Amino acid sequence: MSIHLRHIQKHFGRSQALSPIDLEIRSGELIGLLGPSGSGKTTLLRIIAGLETPDDHRDCRILFGERDVTQVHVRDRRIGFVFQHYALFRHMSVFDNVAFGLTVLPRAERPSSAEIRSRVMQLLEMVQLSHLAERFPAQLSGGQQQRVSLARALALKPEVLLLDEPFGALDAKVRQELRRWLRHLHDELGFTSVFVTHDQEEALELSDRVVVMSNGRIEQVDTPDTLYRAPRNRFVFEFLGDVNHLEGVVQDGVLTCGDARLAVDLEDGRQELLLRPHEVQVALQAQADAHLPASVMSIVPVGAEVRVELSADWMSEPWMATLSHQDAERLSLKRGMRVHALPRRWHHYPGAQEAPGTQVRPQQVSA
């Protein structure tokens, strides 16, 4: 089931929660709405669900496939909704929680008791909780409760599944396990899903495409890979991961900031460059086109990489560089050691009317 949003905007009093938004969600996609608090992502999700009403405007439309649901009540939109804090009925068993939506259907639409039992047990098998059908929510872990909540949302065979920060109340390890499980379930069943998160890693790992939002606007909609490699603007770049800043004055193709000098292809004047930690190499010697002396502040092995924090007078704040274990061992890095930062690649976001630029130092980039 595809979702088409046309000219969706929302005010709460004098405050504008959503600027006019257009968004196309393809049938079977898993879409992440990503942004900081106050960006409008939850408001947009609730408008899709019918829990909030968009501002009245003649061009405003919410389409599920060819069906216009702009004025349709939430109970008639055929959506499933999963809340961050589960919203399970504590006095009901796991089985009864999942069956609840089926048992309260109008008599003409309600399946028989045997059909309800069959469907509920099938869903509990799917979420790997059939052996806990008679337990109560208080007897389950957070991850198990969230799976019950998801099974309940799927019981009515919704055309669209909406999830509001579904893993926000869980610890890191359980979140990671449930992300993989939800992705597998989504691929198996093929429903259209939209979920809200402020966790960049979660959005990039789980989504087919990510909608990055800020201040009620959509900043960029792209696949996780494109979003990370080609951010459309500075907000998207800085929101999606750690960033190193280098600000200085460019004159005759050289950016100078205190003791730091870097050859750049930019106009003369004050400019700022942005670099990801993996785009910064650490070397024992400067190069002709890059002189950025620094001191090693910390060395932290994290999985397959080593994170090195660098400090220098010319930095507005410490830089982070990520190295392979092999490179870190070859350099024999120690705290307090004097080294040189060598940008492999940097990004430049000038004025709003100019296109962003990226510059690569070919001699530092492996083929």
Structural class given helices, strands, pairing? alpha+beta
Beta-strand percentage range? 25-35%
Number of helices: 9
Mean pLDDT, to the nearest integer, reads 89
Radius of gyration: 25 Å
Catalogue the unreliable spans.
362-367
Strand order of the largest sheet: 6-7-8-3-9-10
DSSP summary, beta strand count: 22
Instruction: Indicate the percent of residues in helices.
Output: 10-25%
Question: Major sheet, described briefly?
Answer: 6 strands, mixed
Q: Termini, distance in Å?
A: 42 Å
- The shape, in one word, is elongated
How does this model look, in words?
- The chain has 367 residues and is α+β, with helices and mostly antiparallel strands.
- α2 packs across α3 (113-126) and α2 (94-103) packs parallel to α4 (142-155).
- Mean pLDDT is 89; it is low at 362-367.
- The strands form 5 sheets. A 6-stranded mixed sheet has the order 6-7-8-3-9-10, with helices on both faces.
- The chain contains 9 helices and 22 strands.
Question: What is the gist of this entry?
Answer:
The protein has helices spanning about 40-50, 95-105, 115-125, 140-155, 170-190, 200-205, 225-230, 235-240, 325-330; strands at about 5-10, 15-25, 30-35, 60-65, 65-70, 80, 160-165, 190-195, 210-215, 215-220, 245-250, 255, 260-265, 270-275, 280-285, 290, 295-300, 305-310, 320-325, 340-345, 345-350, 355-360. The chain is built from nine helices and 22 strands.
